[in-house]
Amino acid sequence: MSLVMPAPDPATLAKRAEIVAALRAIVPGEGVIDDIESLRAYESDGLTAYRQPPMVCVLPETVEQVAAILRWCHGNRVKVVPRGAGTSLSGGALPLADGVLLGMARFNRVLDIDYADRVAVVQPGVTNLAITCAVEDAGFYYAPDPSSQIACTIGGNVAENSGGVHCLKYGLTTNNVLGVELVTMEGDVIRLGGRGLEPAGLDLLGVIVGSEGLLGVVTEVTVRILPRPQTAQALLIGFPSVESAGQCVADVIAAGIIPAGMEMMDRAAVHAAEDFVHAGYPLDVEALLIVELDGPVAECGHLSGEVERIALANGAVSVRASVDEAERIAFWAGRKAAFPAAGRLSPDYYCMDGTIPRRRLPHVLNRMNELSGQYGLGVINVFHAGDGNLHPLILYDANQPGQLEAAEAFGADILRLCVEVGGVLTGEHGVGVEKRDLMPVMFSEADLAQQQRVKCAFDPELLLNPGKVFPELHRCAELGRMHIHRGEVPFPDLPRF
């Protein structure tokens, strides 16, 4: 592992038995896992290149148990790493050797569905797809749909601000979450937002969504549900070059058309997905766009025609529209299976996540091909073209000496390229440990200090998910926060106001 995590605290490790006993007193039965073999199930998340078994894992079932666990760990200065389904691709749930892994899998109930207010209240362990399944009989659905939606949980979606193929029109998690119940590191239970569309006070909900488990543990989420559109149609559009496909994307948006989804796959990704799913993709193209329009029948038909016109003007060599719902789903099945399909091409792959301005797509893709030759590693491209969120998959073999390190360096260069052209380090996977050491590429020292002050406001002892996001986590006192040691403030004789 080339990644450096915080060194384990010997004092904490020495009292492991005491920690396990305290957790068992809070969560009885099978809620505490401490044997080494069972802990291996939690040693990594979706970024499997990095592994670290936790000191102990605890699986609470109630909010009271979560609060008691955090309160005890805070009082005894024990680090805590929250974990959902473990599908994070940035190492956000990577455990600590001297930390408690707080698994939220047992919080898996849909608590309430209110069709009048168009909201659902769910626990964080409910999977993304399960929300849609719970409301689809009434003609509703939950819009954000990451490719891992069958497994990823809403709590993890909140932590990483996940998106999906339909986030172009309907927004990411942050645009679809109305409120959360949150337990702080001190064990306090608070509520942010709610069912209303305009909550009063500071927008702390906006701070929590995307905070990657650094600020608190979410125990309940209120999400927006939407009525199913009257109709939806997907277009498969093949292009002779990535450049022409990229220009088509820019021209569609410039025409004022906001598709429900607009995805691009390069030649290698198209072939891999078609061999895996048999979705009917054309194999004689260099780039494939999947464009979905939805809404009233007349509007959908008109916009589909406009997209086809723009595509043909950009040199499209094939255009195929879905004729029914089954075919539309089949078109998307290939795209959503692109990641597992890539697993058939190489023993390992490294999935990157960066976002760029749409107009820079051709330049960035060409530069990635150059980097592929430089590092001697293959790369296939699957991404949310409509909002410029790239997901290049770097192909490598971890059993070959030096290839993991080369893949890491290749990925870092891709992310630097994203920032160089005016983009950002992540679109939806989060920073975690994967992009942690690249944060100074995008943010100045002052920028990072301000972000860390938010961390200090929620978690002044820096016990919650340490080692993630910030390349160098300063003590709160170093950022201007008064440090109180054993109840004594510095310079007690000075007057305080």
UniProtKB/TrEMBL annotation:
* Obligatory cofactor(s): FAD
Q: Which residues form the FAD-binding PCMH-type domain?
A: 50-228
Q: What name is this protein filed under?
A: FAD-binding protein
Q: Which UniProt keywords apply?
A: FAD, Flavoprotein, Oxidoreductase
Q: Name one GO molecular function term.
A: FAD binding
| Gene3D superfamilies associated with the record | 3.30.465.10, 3.30.70.2740, Vanillyl-alcohol Oxidase, Chain A, domain 4
**Keyword presence, Flavoprotein:** yes
Native organism is Sphingomonas tagetis
One of this protein's Pfam families, by short name?
FAD_binding_4
